[in-house]
Amino acid sequence: MRTLSLSPLTVLPCSPLEQVDAAVDAGFDAIGLRLFPVMATDIDVMSDMKIQRAIERRIAATKLQVLDIEVVRITPQMNVAAIAPALEFAGGLGARWLAVTSAAVYDYRPEEEPVVVRRLGELCEVASRYSMGVMLEFMAFRGIGTLEAAARVVAAVRHANLGITLDALHFYRSGGTARALACVDPPRLACVQLCDAPRTAPLNLPSEARYGRLYPGEGELPLKDLVSALPRDLPVSVEVPSRSRAHLSASERAIESARWTRQLLATID
Predict the structure, then answer these.
(1) Torsion on CA atoms 97, 102, 203, 222, rounded to nearest 10
(2) pLDDT digits (tens, 9 = 90+) for 80-122
(3) SS3 content of the chain, % helix, strand, coil (to 5)
(4) CA 269 to mean position of chain CA atoms
(5) CA-to-CA distance for 195 and 23, rounded, in angstroms?
(6) Cis omega (within 30 of 0) on the bond before 20?
(7) Cα separation, 11 vs 220, whole angstroms
(8) Under 8 Å CB-to-CB from 225, ≥6 apart: which residues?
(9) Which of 74, 180, 194, 255 could form a disulfide with 216 if both were Cys (CB 3.0 to 4.6 A apart)?
(10) Burial 181-199 (b: 16+ CB within 10 A, else e)
């Protein structure tokens, strides 16, 4: 049985408590939680003890798993110690992974990659204290932009609890093919994030990734080839931010995204 997790981006903007309720309404097994604000509408969970306690109670009551927390940018200047409180909180929820990405491609300096590797290793050490792993996500518009680049960095870090997030959109927009998965040992894959899109990429990849995705099976990406090439027990995170569904409630978006995803997976399983 595949674990199905609701990514925050599918239902944002909403509170973490609304996301938990939406995940339950849609029958998800797990959720990802955004603890580090990225957008102006994001709630700063780590600055609000009251909402932290409310999240703990709601997760315990619903028995949802927490697949991951997001999202940290790995840079040479990153303060690893400052992330420890969020890891402690997430570890208490039973979270499995901390999601990280690299800096934007125009800020990423290849000559600084050895320092990035060291920071990742330090972060893995801190995360391991809370029984968590770190999963690195590559994106075509970030310095670590391909599956091959992510695999190279993970190999350089050489830490047992560092894995790779395989986002279907970023994978195909960076030129990936199912055959390219051979460069990664299956145990190094943390999860697959599913969405869909037109086969032809737009000019603005960041905008598509943040606001313009389609539900799995609704577009033209070869998702069946991708999922069929992955381990059957790899968790599936549904990450489908979509302006076209912005009029729907968080629960409605969660229900629709789960329905499309299950229909796709049923044709494979």
Answers:
(1) -40
(2) 999 999 999 999 999 999 999 999 999 999 999 999 999 999 9
(3) 45, 20, 35
(4) 23
(5) 17
(6) no
(7) 23
(8) 178
(9) 194
(10) beebeeebbbbbbbbbbee
CA distance 12 to 45: 14
The per-residue pLDDT for range 39-69, each reduced to its tens digit, is: 889 999 999 999 999 999 999 999 999 999 9
Residue 144 to residue 74: CA distance in whole angstroms: 10
Question: In DSSP terms, which residues pair with 33 in a beta bridge?
Answer: 69
Cα separation, 53 vs 79, in Å, equals: 25
**Which 8-state DSSP code applies to residue 100?**
E
How far is 158 from 160, CA to CA, in rounded Å? 7
Mean pLDDT of the chain, nearest integer: 96
Query: Hey, what domains does the chain have and what are their CATH numbers?
Result: 4-266 (3.20.20.150)
Q: Quick check: 10 and 240 in contact, CB under 8 A?
A: yes
Instruction: List, in sequence order, every residue forming a beta bridge with 4; answer none if it has no partner.
Output: 236
